[in-house]
């Protein structure tokens, strides 16, 4: 049986991930992601209404036209977690394949919402929720298994495709967090076992390959956040926190810290509402009872008016806008575009890092400058990453001992850095560690 990897997207950028694996006549697609900064450049772009070919031209979604030349049948579309750079292009591309979309329960729910918001295409692929630890028979020769991992969104897994020639592991994205805030640590025992059974190919993320050591646990982020928030107990000034709305573990930490200092946690913003409410309804997280959530602009402004009347010190808003995104709650506050007024001594906490691209730097600078002009104090980088560091990758390779590796989920600087790292561990470039770009094909020999 011939095994081929088609690196469709996410090999020249962080975003728009899509990889296909063909085993004989059966094809499995991993992820269909969206690259958000490509859409933000076009300010008037309304993604829900756009055609996939236009989005491909903007390099916002993977160029899956390469799939036309691949002989075989797509049997499944598999998504490992609910970040938009992994599921965001499903509404534009999935309908072209007559195959179910398989993902973890929380991811499946987010995908359902993504597809429901689509205006241009009718996406009728069957959604199948597979829990971490679960298996799914794809064809006579192929079985899919989800292995529990940790990342900056809950219910993340590594996808393992068991083939007659050994396992193919798709590890986008992961972090080896041994003391997570929500859920269990990665299933190391199972990974080691799969390594013993034989791994033909590892397709792995590499965004933090140049960071030395291990990625700090989410417990460290909790300590950072708590250390700052609980030092203001008797303070009468506002405390405003912005973070990734999809980072449910962080939202849990923030709401608990607010509760601890006697302030009501209030989650604000459309995406904040979507991720937190979905997680809560699925009983994947429990926020303190005093927590409330408001999504749309009108209700956000109404609760802001209430805060101004009752006293800002009674609340802790947790809001969108850590990258200075236009239209987000923090950006609107900075622009004086909400009833919520900041004044001297008020505090704005960023439980996030700037995602490094020039547009984010610019927008973040603008927002931060406006906030400072009100006299607000800024507390930055109360955050840890969701992606493995160099020594995590070292451990990973030693657990699996893969015959071949394809670094993915990064630009060429990152994938090349990974290839260099792998060559230090005994791999040889283009023989068993393969540098790929978008739209390429690789036949994997045992
Ligand atoms: Zn991710």
UniProtKB/TrEMBL annotation:
GO terms for molecular function: 5'-3' RNA exonuclease activity; RNA binding; zinc ion binding. InterPro entries: Metallo-B-lactamas, RibonucZ/Hydroxyglut_hydro, RMMBL, RNase_J, RNase_J_2, RNase_J_arc, RNase_J_b_CASP. GO terms for biological process: RNA catabolic process. Binds 2 Zn(2+) ions per subunit. It is not clear if Zn(2+) or Mg(2+) is physiologically important. Its cofactor is Zn(2+). It is found in: Cytoplasm. Keywords: Cytoplasm, Exonuclease, Hydrolase, Metal-binding, Nuclease, RNA-binding, Zinc. Residues 15-232 form the Metallo-beta-lactamase domain. One of its GO terms (cellular component) is cytoplasm. Zn(2+) 2 binds at residues 85-86, 173, 409. Its EC number is 3.1.-.-. Zn(2+) 1 binds at residues 81, 83, 151, 173. Its main location: cytoplasm. Coiled coil: none annotated. Homodimer. HAMAP family: RNase_J_arch. An RNase that has 5'-3' exonuclease activity. May be involved in RNA degradation. Belongs to the metallo-beta-lactamase superfamily. RNA-metabolizing metallo-beta-lactamase-like family. Archaeal RNase J subfamily. PANTHER family: RIBONUCLEASE J. This is Ribonuclease J. It comes from Methanocalculus taiwanensis. The lineage of its organism: Archaea, Methanobacteriati, Methanobacteriota, Stenosarchaea group, Methanomicrobia.
């Amino acid at each position: 049986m011939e095994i081929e990897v088609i690196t469709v997207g996410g090999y020249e950028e962080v975003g728009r991930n899509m990889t296909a694996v063909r085993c004989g006549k059966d094809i499995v697609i991993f992820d269909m992601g969206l690259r958000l900064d490509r859409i933000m450049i076009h300010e008037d772009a309304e993604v829900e209404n756009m055609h996939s070919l236009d989005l491909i031209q903007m390099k916002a979604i993977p160029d899956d036209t390469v799939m036309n030349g691949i002989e075989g049948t797509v049997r499944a579309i598999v998504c490992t977690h609910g970040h938009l750079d992994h599921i965001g292009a499903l509404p534009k591309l999935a309908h072209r394949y007559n195959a179910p979309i398989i993902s973890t329960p929380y991811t499946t729910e987010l995908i359902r919402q993504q597809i429901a918001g689509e205006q241009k295409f009718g996406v009728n692929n069957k959604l199948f929720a597979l829990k971490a630890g679960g298996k799914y028979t794809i064809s006579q020769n192929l079985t899919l298994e989800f292995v529990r991992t940790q990342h900056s969104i809950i219910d993340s897994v590594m996808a393992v495709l068991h083939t007659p020639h050994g396992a193919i592991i798709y590890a986008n994205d992961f972090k080896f967090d041994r003391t997570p805030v929500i859920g269990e640590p990665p299933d190391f025992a199972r990974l080691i076992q799969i390594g013993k059974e034989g791994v033909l190919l590892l397709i792995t993320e590499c965004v933090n390959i140049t960071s030395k050591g291990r990625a700090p646990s989410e417990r460290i982020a909790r300590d950072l956040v708590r250390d700052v928030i609980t030092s203001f107990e008797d303070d009468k000034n506002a405390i405003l926190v912005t973070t990734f709305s999809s980072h449910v573990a962080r939202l849990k930490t923030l709401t608990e810290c607010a509760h601890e200092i006697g302030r009501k946690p209030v989650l604000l913003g459309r995406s904040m509402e979507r991720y937190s409410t979905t997680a809560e309804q699925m009983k994947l997280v429990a926020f303190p009872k005093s927590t409330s959530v408001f999504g749309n602009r009108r209700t956000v402004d109404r609760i802001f008016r209430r805060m101004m009347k009752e006293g800002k010190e009674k609340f802790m808003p947790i809001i969108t806008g850590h990258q200075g995104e236009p239209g987000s709650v923090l950006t609107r506050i900075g622009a004086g575009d909400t009833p919520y007024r900041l004044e001297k001594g008020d505090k704005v906490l960023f439980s996030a890092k700037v995602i490094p691209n020039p547009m984010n730097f610019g927008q973040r600078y603008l927002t931060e400058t406006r906030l400072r002009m009100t006299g607000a104090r800024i507390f930055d980088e109360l955050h840890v990453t969701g992606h493995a560091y160099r020594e995590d990758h070292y451990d990973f390779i030693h657990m699996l001992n893969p015959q071949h590796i394809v670094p993915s989920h990064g630009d060429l600087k990152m994938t090349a850095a990974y290839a260099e790292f792998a060559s230090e561990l005994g791999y040889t470039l283009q023989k068993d560690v393969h540098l790929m770009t978008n739209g390429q094909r690789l036949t994997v020999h045992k």
